[in-house]
Amino acid sequence: MESGEGAGGPAALAGRTDRELQFGCASFNQDSTSLALGTETGYKLFSLTMVEKLDCIHESETPDVYIVERLFSSSLVVVVSTTMPQRMNIYHFKKGTEICNYSYPNNILAVKLNRQRLVVCLEESIYIHNIKDMKLLKTLLNTPSNPSGLCALSINHSNSYLAYPGSATIGEIIVYDANNLNTVTMIPAHDSPLAALTFNASATKLASASERGTVIRVFSIPEGLRLFEFRRGMKSGGDEAATWTAYMGKMFSAASSYLPAQVSGMMSQDRAFATVHLVTSGQRNVCTLAMIQKLPRVLVATADGQLFIYNVDPLDGGECMLAHKHRLFGIDEDQGEGTESEGSEVTGTAQACPSYAATAALPASGPVTATLTGYSEDGGAKKGEVIPEHEFAAGPVCLDDENEFPPINWCRDGTGGGQARRS
């Protein structure tokens, strides 16, 4: 399940129990180094750099948040609340300021962003903004009914591909070039409506699943050719396992900071290499693959406010072991805080969050000079840092949180609020 999917909009908060009502949404950022959590009382941002320790780097009291998306490891955060479901607010959380806000004709169902584009998905339209100045570049009107707001935006800003349903009744996928603002291809992916979409890190492959949920198909991008088909619940067997596990071992050992870029090259069979059995079922989850402390992990954030971290065996695969469980909000009803859960190696509670004022008062640091520069909190990469392959692009975008942060320059003239219009 892709991070950020299934937030569900205002309707998703209706008809739940008191315990479930605390939870609005959860999403991992583009390189799975951060987790954003929205609840009735506000939203929190967590850093995902260690297995045993979960640091809350920011907390806001914005009520009834059902969409919260962070741009990589920057201070830009997009928030949508059920109190104003047609308005998107963009904040610089480190400064404690609102950069701007934008209103749309209907409820916002999803927001996706990379270093070039910010995409807002409504039920029957999609808005594409330039992230550096929030100019509305394109409005895709009369798109097929998409009540869940299903869409995917590639994180590679050299080719900002956008994928969304091309039909409400069958599993057609429209692939749109959000940089050049033109349709790339239409993929007849499934017989039943789509339920999930995600690009690999370099945007050369697109995976999809339908509402039936039994088959995952992978297509080449931009051609739209079917490359692989996977069926749930199948294992590698016999002679196939030796070659498959050896290849997996090589790929995992070469992985740097974003696992999906490497995983995309491993898909040569239609069988499951590794599996995760969740502690509970019947609730909404968001999950991601990430490299934490140089090892591959599966992270699962659950609707009851927990984060499960599983280890993936890079050589033998098989059943992923639960390495750690963190409580994101509330208390554990079955066991007291800090007690060990059955089947887990360790468990813990999220670290105390700094106040909003304390976060806004954090000292700003200027850009760090480096041979390879990427987008980070200090405006550049630290010396010796390895930049993942998906960070490289023609005409790199280096945004400075303090001086060039999108879309601060445009908002300084007092026109920071906007009404989305068709282009």
UniProtKB/TrEMBL annotation:
Protein name as catalogued: WD repeat domain, phosphoinositide interacting 1
Ranked from the top, the taxonomy reads: Eukaryota, Metazoa, Chordata, Craniata, Vertebrata
The gene it comes from is wipi1
The record's annotation in SUPFAM superfamilies points to: WD40 repeat-like
- Record family assignment: Belongs to the WD repeat PROPPIN family.
* Annotated InterPro entries: PROPPIN (IPR048720), WD40/YVTN_repeat-like_dom_sf (IPR015943), WD40_repeat_dom_sf (IPR036322)
Source organism per UniProt? Sander lucioperca
* Keywords, alphabetical: Repeat, WD repeat
PANTHER family the record matches: WD-REPEAT PROTEIN INTERACTING WITH PHOSPHOINOSIDES WIPI -RELATED (PTHR11227)
